[in-house]
Amino acid sequence: MAVAEDKFSELFEQKAKAIKHRGAYYLEDAGEKGMALVEAKFKDTKLYWLVDVKEDRIFSARFFAYGGKVSLVIGETLCFMVEGLTIDEASSLLKTDVEALLRDEPEVPSVPESKMKSFDSVDELLKIIKDHYPSAKAIAIASASIDKVEVKSTTELTLVAQAWLGLTIDEQKQQIDIVLDEHVRPALMNDGGNVQVLDVTDGERILIQYQGACGSCGSSLGATLSFMESTLRKHIYNELTVVPQM
Fold first, then answer.
1. Closest CA to 212 of 223, 202, 220
2. Using CA atoms in the order 58, 44, 128, 135, what is the torsion angle rounded to 10 degrees?
3. Cα-Cα-Cα-Cα dihedral of 137, 140, 144, 145, to 10°?
4. Averages of pLDDT over each 10 residues, the chain, 246 residues
5. pLDDT at residue number 224
6. Distance from the CA of 221 to the CA of which of 18, 56, 62, 170 falls in 20 to 30 A?
7. Helices marked H in the chain — which ranges?
8. 3-state secondary structure at position 227
9. How much is the pLDDT for 237?
10. DSSP assignments along 40-101, one per residue
11. 169-244: CATH class
């Protein structure tokens, strides 16, 4: 027994009226969830799967199809079937499995004979998914590692800021003098100059006064000041600003 040439199964028609998986995922979506995004495009259909790289399990699936009702239902049914499966389990599915799920009766095709060839896209799409998943997984793992480094760096910077801002003004001035003694003052003193730390405001603004030859040196507001500021930022706190008293 076969369906009439222009007749689809009831299950097929129901699926066509209740499309739930249409849409797309992007790398940003995968990154937010710590998953891999694997895509596959064949003819008029494109798949977007979010995959948990720890288990290689499909967390969510979406698709776009532009070939009419049959392509739409195939995409919807395939996405429904693969969610919760591993990549290997999903890749082992066949076009006949998808078509069979849409039948009202086991022996009656879900679509007219002229539409059966549309299911060939299932095998092609799943082959592409299987081939592309290893690289998608590698990208996801690499991205997660980079994110961890960035989070660690941000945490470390925050701890440094907290430690610095938690000091008293006298303690801050003492730390600044230590850095100046080691990295800045020797060069100034060789030229007959020096620098005095007058005050620290809000943990960020350092008021200084040049002494000796530095007071009349043109570089005191240029290269010398820039070097001093960058040195203090490097060794103490990145938000420091040095302001000479005029």
1. 220
2. -70
3. 60
4. 68 94 92 91 95 94 92 96 96 96 95 94 96 91 67 61 84 91 88 89 90 58 80 87 85
5. 80
6. 170
7. 10-17, 27-33, 69-82, 87-91, 95-101, 120-165, 169-183, 185-190, 223-235
8. helix
9. 84
10. EEETTEEEEEEEETTTTEEEEEEEEE-S-HHHHHHHHHHHHHHTTSBHHHHHT--HHHHHHH
11. alpha beta
Q: How many residues does the chain have?
A: 246
pLDDT value, residue 2: 47
Same CATH fold assignment for domains 10-145 and 169-244: no
Cβ contact 206:241 at 8 Å: yes
Rounded to an integer, what distance in angstroms lies between the CA atom of residue 198 and that of residue 207? 5
Locate 16 and state its tokens. Answer: 């066509």
pLDDT confidence of residue 119: 97
Site of tokens 């998808």: 98
CATH class, domain 10-145, is alpha beta
